[in-house]
Amino acid sequence: MSHVATRQGQLRGSASNGVHTFLGIPYAAPIVEGNRFRPPQPRGPWDGVRDATKYGASPFQPAPPESAGSEWDVALAGEDCLNLNVWTPDPGAGGLPVMVWIQGGAFEIGSTAAYNGTNFARDGVVCVVINWRLGPDGFLDLGDGISNIGLLDQVAALEWVRDNIAAFGGDPGNVSVFGQSAGAMSIGVPLSMPRAEGLFRRAILQSGAAHHAIPAGTAQKIGHYFAGKLGVPPTRDAIAAVSTPRLLAAQAELKTDLISRPDPELWGEDVAASQMLWQPVIDGDVVPGRPLERIGGGAGAAVDVMVGTNTEDWKMFLAITGVLGRVTAQDLAEDKGVEGFPRLSAYGLPAEVALREYRSHYPANSPGELLAAVETAWWVRIPAIRLAEAHAGAALATAARTYMYEFGWQAPGLGAVHAVEVPFVFDTLDKNSRLFGPLLGPNPPQELADSMHRAWVSFASTGDPGWPGYDLDRRITMLFDTEPRLIDDPYAWERVLWGQIR
Fold first, then answer.
1. Which of 79, 80, 145, 335 is the most exposed place for a label (fewest CB within 10 A)?
2. What ranges does the record give for the region Disordered, renumbered to this chain (predicted)?
3. Structural domains in the chain?
């Protein structure tokens, strides 16, 4: 057993093979007694020694897809979901670098139980994985002055880290946030947020950047649609009075409405294209303006940033739904939506322009793979490039650095798709995770995991992952594959093509 003393009280964790683990630590009050659909509240102290050997509750969410495996079963959803896990090599140490993982899941699903920070602790890092509220619990906006609750949860967790991580051997002045997909998009927004300023020194964004935040008017329209589904007035008290099963059912019903009729007039252009109902909101307060514009103007300029994508990121979603092989050339030429996926032009490029350019660069690709390439560019690659450009330009006035990477290893039968890099970053190829394991095939390359994990640890420790920084002249990008190598400006044609759309 291991013991630490936090500001809220004593914790009893576990120890194995030189790593001390503390699970289910509350960083904010339970979402009861008027706290649901409202910003996080401080957690009071507890008496005695709190057991920290089991995962805490997960946030309320719809059932995850069957492919997610059993990780979400480990920690059932509940009101005391604002908790986090810590892995440390030595609670009695001092000055260890700290890495805080913000999980993905389209702002709708996620659980800390899916991630294991043991191997970061093995390599001298204090690793923290946080829960935060999802879906309407995290992003309901009714025009009442409350919004972005999920982001405020993340800020509260980082404040807890600032105030308590020294008790676990960590350095509160050397905190790196890292995340994937919606977790990376979450980081892209706090880079621009005044309330998050000073809470982290470095940031790693995997397959997500600073583009996906919607206007307040769009978010409030969705909030009112949600209340209408529930048959209650559009107020927080009325919605909070509805049972959790009904709230989750209405969430699923609203998502079905969006997928079946992705009309920008109904949902707003951003939501119709992304098909994400719940995401960060440009509310003028928590998120004062468009995150990318604020970063270009100097917000987050003192933070070291590493950002990247996977070569075939969004192919994942067409593949797992079976749509990849059913998209036809006629579907693309007629600019039709395909089985729940928006039409090609919904991403901003005229369909004929997109088809011409992508066919010329990927002549062997199937129609489904062409659609996936456009989606990859819109969702993550172009946002990553623009974030790197904006940050590199603003950071010229500071000592902060900007780095870019790409993950190119081809998972058998899938390719270099969304989320495949996560077990390489965590160095958990040997863990047989039911969340990521099936994606990797029988013999994923341990040497690649060694290389990526070492780069992430180095960046968190020193701000240098081991390759030259990104600038607007060379645009150096590290390609992680079986033989990692540096590439200059790997998607110049695509960057120019999408330059007409801001």
1. 145
2. 34-70
3. 2-180 (3.40.50.1820), 216-274 (no CATH), 309-500 (3.40.50.1820)
